[in-house]
# Entry
Amino acid sequence: MLGTQSTGKSSVLESIVHRPFLPRGSDIVTRCPLVLQLVECKKTCKQYRKASNGTAEIEEWGEFAHLENQIFSDFDKIRQEIDDQTEKLAGSNKGICKQPINLKIFSPSVVNLTLVDLPGITKVAVGDQPED
# Structure
């Protein structure tokens, strides 16, 4: 998704997923591209069996490409991991990074779809953002 800063691009993604999972703030929050792959997953699918792993059943979860074999069933922890990875890639002074964060969300209530949430277009650079 492309648009100016603070116009609700991330909110549109959350409405598609039916869960709040993206970081929030009053300033620029999306500072790295977020490649969001939605995977429709019913109880009979292979990924569901892998995520449940014979213990507690989970219907919805997320997996990050940079954290192999970790399953996040708590969407607040998904939000925190996006925050942490953004800080790692883009720094703590409002910098922008071209390297994407890759997240797969598995759920019975989504359709198979891949979306990209891009940092917003700003008119005036702040912090560690490039002048262009």
